[in-house]
Amino acid sequence: MGCAGSSQAKGDGPVKKIRKPKAWKHPQPITKTDLARMRDEFWDTAPHYGGTKEIWDALRAAAEADLTLAQAIVDSAGVIVQSADLTICYDERGARYELPKYVLSEPTNLI
What we know:
The chain has 3 helices and 3 strands. By secondary structure, it is mainly alpha-helical. The chain has one domain (23-101): Ub domain-containing protein, DC-UbP/UBTD2, N-terminal domain (Bacteriocin As-48, Chain A, Up-down Bundle), CATH 1.20.225.
């Protein structure tokens, strides 16, 4: 017999499958170079928002992977997905991780 808190109990509900974020639009047209710069700045500063570097690294890998690999990454890292598009996640200790849509997908007005 194991401890009820040692793993996800059946009553906790199913593991949330991740999906691509809904289409979004940047306030002004943006180039791929500017989008890449914004993403790099976010990932460089993300550990300063709290949580652990290991989870931030796993979230970055998941954000840059296809959906199947992303699901495997978050599952193996123990990430608890609050929003199926990965915009809000938690680690097993309860630390919250918020990802902006621009690190998860491209805007509709990309130039």
